[in-house]
Each structure stands twice: as structure tokens, then as C-alpha cells.
Amino acid sequence: MTKPLDGIKIIDFTHVQAGPACTQLLAWFGADVIKVERPGSGDVTRNQLRDIPDADALYFTMLNSNKKSLTLDTKKPEGKEVLEKLIRESDVLVENFGPGALDRMGFSWERLNELNPKMIVASVKGFSDGHHYDDLKVYENVAQCAGGAASTTGFWDGPPTISAAALGDSNTGMHLAIGILTALLGRDKTGKGQKVAVSMQDSVLNLCRVKLRDQQRLERVGYLEEYPQYPHGEFGDVVPRGGNAGGGGQPGWVLKCKGWETDSNAYIYFTIQGHAWEPICKALGKPEWIEDPAYKTAEARQPHIFEIFKTIEAWLADKTKFEAVDILRKFDIPCAPVLTMKELANDPSLRASGTIVEVPHKKRGSYLTVGSPIKFSDMKPEVTASPLLGEHTDEVLAGLGYSKQDIFNLREMKAV
Ligand code: COA
Known about the structure:
Bound molecules: coenzyme A
Helix content: 25-40%
Distance between the termini: 33 Å
Structural class: alpha/beta
Largest sheet: 6 strands, parallel
Strand order of the largest sheet: 3-2-1-4-5-6
Number of helices: 17
Number of strands: 11
């Protein structure tokens, strides 16, 4: 079956998570992604947090499926020559090195554009070009702090908190993938490549837009009515941490279910959607709340919202999180169990949809990984194992016209 990105050749000069997440997505959709790695060591994540000695770590395998691996020392003249050949016939080069690394290697945007004016050059950096921090190296949690996520996540009486979701890394990779696809469409019209740059700070901030909304509301009116601090607590001049409050107009909270004393995830998220108040009262066996002026409107409920949550918790006390959701769904109440990684890994629906897949690997045996979260009517992205270090070096070099003797010589020079 042909895939939408069949025929698009991508030089994957990425490492760790932000860049590899982007190129993995494009590989799922059919692009020919050639990961260029330093001979002998490769992407640092091959070795990070290994669970099986001598086999690539899950950190690597889960971000590099469907790719080829070419080892190449791009600081050696012979390695640069190979890279130049590859550049001349590729559609996209993706990189997420530290600031200036590509320039120091001799592959500035100007040089790349000269070598292949049709090629798209896509970069992830911690901060955008010209930003006063644009010389900084950045990892996930640094980006979450710089992009506004940390100052607005957590509880008001605790420190700024990092989310487990990779808002700085994989999220930035997803933004970059959108940029690359846009530039490819643009190239169809103009015939020209261009530089696509995404910063981790900008990508985190893009997902924190409702907090930027809240900053402006706070400055105008002095309070935020959907935050737990309202109406009894104090507001300062910056958006506070709101614990588990809902970010939109619907109050919600994480509520205890049966077994919470021993199971740290026996909780559901319960949302009090304005127009669902009547079904909520019926589900909870509190029909008297429907017309009670102290409960009837969202405004009336807010001053005692935690008392309402306590009543709901009393209702939940003899129900597991799954039983509770099964009842509440019949009343059309937006809610979900708090699911653990173990529950998600074994979820039959996620296996059936291809969101979680089991992939055979030459050294590891099979491993679980994420499949495409994007579903298409005409394509089912198939996930194949990540490559071993240098697994496709000979194949890629032969494709570039190198003979067996040339490849032998490159190996002798430790250029591949
Ligand atoms: N052959 C030879 N040299 C290679 C190579 C290859 N195939 N691949 C990489 N290198 C060299 C680079 O040229 C660079 O050398 P230089 O610093 O002497 O110029 C070096 O390896 C890589 O440097 P860098 O990317 O800065 O690695 P690091 O481990 O010091 O920093 C990060 C890691 C992630 C902090 C940094 O890459 C970064 O800030 N990236 C941008 C933001 C980002 O993507 N963050 C991580 C998200 S998961």
C-alpha cells in the first residue's frame, strides 16, 4: 500500500526526544527516514536507562521506529562528503543539536541551501533565534519552566511542578512535523525549500495558552472564578497554580473512589459541566439540588464547590473508578478513571486501535511502544522496530553510489 509520504527522503540528524519524535511520526506516514548517528555510540538514548544489557534502551526504541540508521562521522572530511551527497538528494533535513553545532560542523543554513535549494531544513532549539536565551542548551523540564507550564502546574501551597507529559520534547517534535509538512506543500508551489524552526519554549507556551488568557483576565478583574482560590482565597498578580481545577469554564476535580486508601490511582476526574447539572444531581441521588438556589447556577455553586465534591466523594466511596464511570456515562457526565501506565499498556481498545503496539526487535525480543495517535480512513500506519546502530549503513552508502571497496575504505578511516 502506498503511503502519503512515500518518496520523501529525510535526513534525521536528531537525538534524544524532540527531534526523533518528529521524524518517527513522518516515518510512520511513509517517509524514508535515515537517522545519521555518530559511529560507535549513536544517539545517546540507545544507552540511557537500559533494562537489558547490550540491547538498545526503550527510550531509543520507542522514538526511532520505522527508521534506517546510517553511522557517519560528520566532523571528518570523508563523512562530510557522504553527508553532502545525501543532502543533494534529500527533501528534508531535521536536526536538534545544541545551538551552533550544525554551523560548527560546516552545515549552516546558507551552505545547506546552496547544496540543495529545494531541501527543507527543520530545527528544534530550546529558544527561538534572537531570543536572549538562544545560546542555551535545553531539555524537557527546562522548557516546561521556560514556557509557563511549571509556574501554572501543581498545588498553590507547593513548588512549580513538571508534567510527566513531554510538553517540551515530543510536543515540540509534533509542532516541527506540522512545520515540515507545511513547507513541503509550500515547496510544491514555489519549488523552493526553506528553514523551519521551532523552539521548545514556544511550543510549551502554545499549549499553555489558556494560562496566558488567565493572566489577562486576572489583570483586568483581579480574580479567576474557576480557580480553587475563588472566592475564599487570595489572588496575587500572576496566574496561580490551580491544582486539579478545570482550565475551561467547567469546574472539575480528581475525586477519591473505593480503594483509594491502598491504591494511589483509585480516582476519577469529575467535571461539573453547566448544562449537565440536572443529570449530575439525578446520578448522585440529590434531586433537591436541581432547583435549590444555592446550587442551581454555576455561580451559586462556586463558593461551595469543594463541599459538592465532598458529597460526590461520599457517593463514590463504595464504587471503583470503573464502576463509577460506567454509571456516570449513562448520565452524559464528562468523566474518566485515572488510568495507570499498567492499565493503559493492557487496554484492549488501545491495542485494537493501534495506539499501543507490540513490535518485534532483533535484540530485545518484542517491546511495547506507541503507534500513531492520528488515525486515517485510507491508511493504517504500521510500526516497525527501531534500527540497530548502523544497520543500514551499507545499504544507504550503496544507494549513494559507493562501491564495496569505497565502503571498506570509509570504515577503515572510521568515517562510518
Ligand atoms: N558525527 C560527528 N559529530 C557529531 C555527530 C556525528 N554524526 N552528531 C553530532 N555530533 C556532534 C555535534 O557536531 C556537536 O559537536 P560540537 O558541540 O563540538 O559542535 C555534538 O556532537 C552534539 O552537541 P549537542 O547537540 O550540543 O549535544 P549535547 O549532548 O551537549 O546537548 C542537548 C544535548 C539536547 C541539550 C542539545 O542538543 C540541545 O540543546 N538541543 C536543542 C534542544 C533540544 O532538542 N533539546 C532536547 C530535546 S529532547
